[in-house]
């Protein structure tokens, strides 16, 4: 279905290059200066189903019509004057659908969630070949000291539906001591397929979103940069590791001073952010009595983009990350634990899993304890906490 609509666009013209007259995303043309002798202009590269109905120029405040040669798409003009281009165009009218949906979670349910655990739901919107399915996640996150919010609601949007007037994923924060009761408006084309395109699916997996990595788990996975970003990481590492611009220092247990940058650490850790906010002197100095310079330096390098800096030091680095609540670093170490757990280290890894509620690591460790019990050091197994031993026997 089409509707004929009028548009007008005003502009000065160039004698050196083309001037693009843009009316809409799909309606535009170029005005190109052709001849100094006759001051003629050519209209070319017409985009869209449009017709030029009038061209005017403004002289001493008056709008005067310009003769337009429709056959040759030319007119005579003067670059110092202001021109107006009038067109009519056939605009396709699309049917749109507006739906209201409600998300509700009670306070007593929110209170059961531990940090980085979530509950999942789905929003269904009617489409031509079924229902659009938009999964949403209600996740317990670290408390925002400014707002008091500790719940994040994320709606994944592979169909680019407009949610409250915005396309893409929809995110909001909430406080766990109040019921979530939100009504949202969804605007979309009902003729779109209920099956997201391959491009949409791929883009969805790449989103820089906390929940893009936890669809099937109760904790965020590590999102280590891929091969394609190594060059970028190297670039930023070179910049951030320049000691000349350090404005924060760690003093290690072996009395070594490790330089760092407040802007990186403020973003990486709420614990560091609190220290920085409460310190008036520069540079900021943090005494770290439990960890040596090698562990601190490797942790800082990882935050600067040097992804392999933690290799071979994951357990000690995890302890450092846990002390200062550096989530990204904890996730990277936990990914290593999941990949490398075996009978020789399972007793150590399972205690980490239980302490920080890493469910997948917990299940992998329990499975190894059961299946490889004969290969596990008996004294280490006997020293495991009672709750782990209890779950071990229940796992059979």
UniProtKB/TrEMBL annotation:
Sequence ranges assigned to domain BTB in this UniProt record: 246-341
Domain of life: Eukaryota
SMART domains: BTB (SM00225)
Pfam families, per database record: BTB (PF00651)
PANTHER family with a match to the protein in the record: OS08G0103600 PROTEIN (PTHR46672:SF1), OS08G0495500 PROTEIN-RELATED (PTHR46672)
Name by which UniProt lists this protein: BTB domain-containing protein
Organism: Panagrolaimus davidi
């Amino acid at each position: 279905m089409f509707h004929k609509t009028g548009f007008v666009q005003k502009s000065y013209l160039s004698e050196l290059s083309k001037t693009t007259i843009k009316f809409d995303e799909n309606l535009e043309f170029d005005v190109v200066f052709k001849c100094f002798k006759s001051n003629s202009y050519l209209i070319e590269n017409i985009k869209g189903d449009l017709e030029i109905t009038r061209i005017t120029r403004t002289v001493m405040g008056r709008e005067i019509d310009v003769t337009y040669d429709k056959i040759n798409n030319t007119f005579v003009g003067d670059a110092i004057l202001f021109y107006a281009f009038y067109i009519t165009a056939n605009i396709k009218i699309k049917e749109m659908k507006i739906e209201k949906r409600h998300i509700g979670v009670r306070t007593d349910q929110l209170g059961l969630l531990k940090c980085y655990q979530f509950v999942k739901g789905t929003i269904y919107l009617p489409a031509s070949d079924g229902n659009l399915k938009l999964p949403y996640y209600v996740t317990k996150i670290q408390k925002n000291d400014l707002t008091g919010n500790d719940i994040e609601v994320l709606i994944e949007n592979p169909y680019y539906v407009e949610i409250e007037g915005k396309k893409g994923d929809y995110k909001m924060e909430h406080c766990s001591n109040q019921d979530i009761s939100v009504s949202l408006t969804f605007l979309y084309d009902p003729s779109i397929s209920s099956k997201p395109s391959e491009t949409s699916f791929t883009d969805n997996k790449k989103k820089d979103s906390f929940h893009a990595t936890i669809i099937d788990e109760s904790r965020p996975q590590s999102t280590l940069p891929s091969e394609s970003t190594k060059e970028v990481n190297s670039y930023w590492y070179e910049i951030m590791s320049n000691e000349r611009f350090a404005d924060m220092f760690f003093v290690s247990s072996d009395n070594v001073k490790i330089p760092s940058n407040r802007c990186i650490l403020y973003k990486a850790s709420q614990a560091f952010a609190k220290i920085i906010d409460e310190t008036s002197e520069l540079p900021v100095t943090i005494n770290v009595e439990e960890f040596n310079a090698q562990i601190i330096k490797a942790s800082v390098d990882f935050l600067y983009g040097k992804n392999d800096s933690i290799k071979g030091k994951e357990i000690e680095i995890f302890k450092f990350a846990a002390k200062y609540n550096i989530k990204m670093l904890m996730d990277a170490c936990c990914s290593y634990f999941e990949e490398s757990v075996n009978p020789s280290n399972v007793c150590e890894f399972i205690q980490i899993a239980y302490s920080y509620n890493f469910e997948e690591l917990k299940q992998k460790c329990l499975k190894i304890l059961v299946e490889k019990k004969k290969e596990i050091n008996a004294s280490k197994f006997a020293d495991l906490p009672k709750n782990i031993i209890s779950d071990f026997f229940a796992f059979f």
